[in-house]
Amino acid sequence: MATLPRPGRVEWMGVRPARDKPMREMTEVEAGAGGGLSGDRYRGGSGKRGVTLIQAEHLPVIAALSGHAAVEASLLRRNLVVSGLPLIALKGRRFRIGEVLLEGTDACDPCSRMEEALGPGGFNAMRGMGGLCARILEGGAIRLGDAVTAEP
Description:
CATH architecture: Beta Barrel
Number of strands: 10
Number of domains: 1
Strand order of the largest sheet: 1-5-4-8-7-6-10
Low-confidence stretches: none
CATH class: Mainly Beta
Helix content: 10-25%
CATH superfamily: PK beta-barrel domain-like
Largest sheet: 7 strands, mixed, barrel
Number of helices: 3
Distance between the termini: 12 Å
Shape: globular
C-alpha cells in the first residue's frame, strides 16, 4: 500500500478568487501553511481543504461519461491536475509538490455545481473521480510541472 510506481506531475493549476467566479489558470502559486493557495478563496484557513487535486487520467473518463469530447480542468473546480500516480493512494499520507509538504485528508467528492458545469448527470459522471483534498503543512511555491512524491 505504501509503494507508488513513480512520481506524479502537476499538469494544470488554478485558483478561484471568490465564490461563483471562474478559475484563473496559473503557472506558479504560493501555498501557505495551514491555509490555502495565494489568490484562492480558501487562502485564509481552509484546514482540510487547503488544496484540491484531481487525477489527469480521469478527465477523459469524466468527459466521456458526461457526453463531452473533452473537459476543461477549470470546469471541475480543483486547484491542481496531477498525472502519473493514483491520487487516492495519498489519502492519509504526506506528500510533496515542489517546495510544499501536504497531507491528503479526504476524497474530494463532486458537488451539485457539476450539473451546471457538465450538464445533466455531471455529478454522477464525476462520482469516484473527484480527486483529493489536502492540507498544507509546510508552505512554499508550487509550479507547473513540479513532481508529486509521497513522503516515506
